[in-house]
Design a protein that fits this description.
elongated; alpha+beta; 3-stranded antiparallel beta sheet
């Protein structure tokens, strides 16, 4: 085993050590994800989804690329490691 020093970033999670403990952040992961889905200029919100929201399919609108949608949902699932407040919203869209 080799000691490589203090952990800084691992698998998209940034670790910051304080006297009180460790702070986990995925800010860079989120920024890269937003850029890859062309959503870098989206508006932030404190509530990820209104309570009781139910999604319905709308056949009159344009088709969504299912591969891109699955990639986005998978990346959002990974965010629940540090953002558990979005878990319900991710389960609804998945």
């Amino acid at each position: 085993m080799t000691n490589l020093g203090q952990l800084g970033c691992y698998l998209g999670v940034n670790f910051t050590t304080f006297k009180e403990g460790v702070f986990l952040s995925q800010r860079l992961y989120i920024e890269k994800m937003l850029q890859s889905f062309k959503m870098a200029n989206c508006n932030p919100t404190k509530v990820p989804m209104a309570e009781g929201t139910k999604l319905e399919s709308n056949m009159s609108e344009h088709k969504v690329d299912s591969t891109s949608y699955r990639q986005m949902v998978g990346k959002l699932f990974y965010l629940t490691n540090t953002k558990p407040n979005i878990s319900l919203s991710i389960f609804v869209v998945s």
